[in-house]
Write a structure and sequence with these properties.
By secondary structure, the protein is mostly helical. It contains 6 helices and no strands. Helix 1 packs antiparallel against helix 2.
Length: about 180
């Protein structure tokens, strides 16, 4: 009869070890997904600011809008080495300036008559959409990781190691109405 009890204890220990192992593996995959999503978001934010700078120097917008877009896009590019909150503020400021400059559908349609402006506006529209998607993927991974971090067993057995709980990237990434972003 004792061997049944020993076998039961061994099975319970093995199942518990399997659970801890799969949970640690899932956490590791989520942290890698967060890291790759962060790199993708960085790349798309840089692309968006680059296209915004190109648009501002193409002489298709009014001088005031061009200057404001160039300045905020430059600030957004410079904030890449800043802390997350400063970077979010700079990127949100660029979104706000783009919304102000490109919110009127009729004006944007007039700009689209110029082939150079049409290409730049299409590229800007695509980069804005990609920023929005990358930010969503990142935030979904962060939320899933945070839910796992909340489990007691994860904390007790330090399955996440010493990695801090990641935070979501909350920025204003609404597209300007005038661009007519596909899929939004």
């Amino acid at each position: 009869m004792n061997w049944w009890l020993i076998a039961l204890v061994i099975v319970v220990v093995l199942v518990f070890a399997w659970y801890l192992s799969t949970t640690a593996g899932r956490l590791d995959r989520l942290h890698r997904r967060i890291e790759t999503s962060t790199f993708a978001l960085d790349a798309q934010l840089l692309r968006r600011s680059s296209v915004a700078i190109e648009l501002s120097v193409a002489e298709v917008l009014d001088p005031a809008s061009s200057e404001l877009i160039a300045e905020t896009a430059h600030d957004a590019r410079q904030s890449i080495d800043a802390d997350v909150m400063q970077r979010i503020a700079a990127e949100s400021a660029l979104s706000e300036v783009l919304m102000q400059a490109l919110d009127d559908v009729d004006e944007v349609n007039l700009l689209r008559e110029d082939p150079l402006a049409a290409d730049l506006l299409d590229e800007l529209s695509a980069s804005i959409r990609r920023v929005e998607l990358c930010r969503r993927f990142l935030n979904d991974a962060v939320l899933a990781c945070g839910q796992i971090h909340e489990h007691r067993l994860v904390r007790w057995f330090r399955l996440a190691g010493h990695t801090p709980v990641p935070t979501t990237w909350e920025m204003d990434d609404r597209p300007p109405q005038g661009l007519g972003i596909i899929g939004s």
